[in-house]
Design goal:
The protein is of the alpha/beta class. The chain is 43% helix and 14% strand. The chain has a 6-stranded parallel β-sheet with strand order 3-4-2-1-5-6, with helices on both faces. It binds 3-methylbut-3-enyl trihydrogen diphosphate (2 copies) and magnesium ion. Belongs to the UPP synthase family.
Length: 253
């Protein structure tokens, strides 16, 4: 069982106004296939419905003045799914980016993509560049889509690039600090997530932001992603504001 309650009483909402909300929320959007199965529908129906939840979630993030929203959309490991499901997912992504680009731009959202982009077909890679380009000057919310993203792969890639720089004399071993290492990750300018939320009752990170999540508050909820609404988002923020973040320091200091 996941551990957050969905109680969003007036008292809770007051609490969130007093305490500091997360600047960066990252979400593992899980449970699309179980949602579809429960309804006797094909998996793609769950993914399609999940795309509607993405829109609701963006709205909720904006309403709460969240600056950074990162969505785990397709993992490096998701390529292991059947060719039909992979093809359905990439088609849905293509459709979403094509038809939502203008709306996202209109709403002042900057879109970023992280992951092994070159594993997608050329046309989709072009869509990624187009939406990043179109929205790059926006500053209301930075929406990062993690696509063909895997954290171990990201860390290995960073280590390879550091080794290259050392070999070429651009960097010394002593200069490789935590801060320098982080600069070699996919998006060094994006702050670490304050909160990572996973839907569908699974309590694991599944290779998502392993480096960046060192001090993130982890919140697991039972709701399946296609059922996720603005109220669920607000409830997760309520759970977050009740947590005490310590970063290794003694409580109360
Ligand atoms: C999440 O839904 C979407 C992706 C991983 C692409 P799933 O398809 O993993 O749904 P469940 O977890 O099997 O229900
Ligand atoms: C994680 O969900 C990836 C995304 C939500 C995009 P999975 O459904 O792929 O993760 P596991 O297999 O349950 O760990
Ligand atoms: Mg899943």
């Amino acid at each position: 069982m996941a551990c957050s309650s969905l109680d969003i009483s007036a008292e809770c909402l007051k609490l969130s106004q007093r305490k500091e909300l997360p600047k960066h929320v990252a979400i593992i959007m899980d449970g699309n296939s179980r949602w579809a199965k429960a309804k006797g529908m094909p998996r793609i129906a769950g993914h399609r419905e999940g795309a509607q939840s993405v829109k609701r979630c963006i709205k909720a993030a904006i309403h709460n003045n969240i600056e950074w929203l990162t969505l785990y959309t397709f993992s490096s490991e998701n390529w292991r799914r059947t060719p039909e499901e992979v093809s359905d997912l990439t088609s849905l992504l293509k459709y979403y980016l094509k038809y939502e680009a203008r709306q996202l731009h209109k709403e002042g959202i900057r879109v970023r993509i992280i992951g092994e982009i070159d594993r997608f077909d050329r046309k989709l890679q072009d869509e990624f560049s187009a939406i990043e380009q179109l929205t790059k000057k926006n500053n209301r919310l930075t929406l990062t889509l993690a696509l063909s993203y895997g954290s171990r792969g990201e860390i290995v890639r960073a280590a390879q690039r550091i080794a290259e720089d050392i070999q070429q004399g651009n960097l010394t071993i002593d200069q490789v600090t935590e801060n320098v290492f982080a600069k070699y990750l996919f998006a060094p300018d994006i702050p670490d997530p304050d909160m990572i939320l996973r839907t569908s009752g699974e309590c694991r990170l599944s290779n998502f932001l392993l480096w960046q999540s060192a001090y993130a508050e982890l919140i697991f909820v039972d709701t399946l992603w296609p059922d996720f609404t603005e109220n669920h988002f607000n409830a997760a923020l309520e759970t977050y504001v009740r947590r005490e973040r310590r970063f290794g320091a003694r409580p109360g200091l």
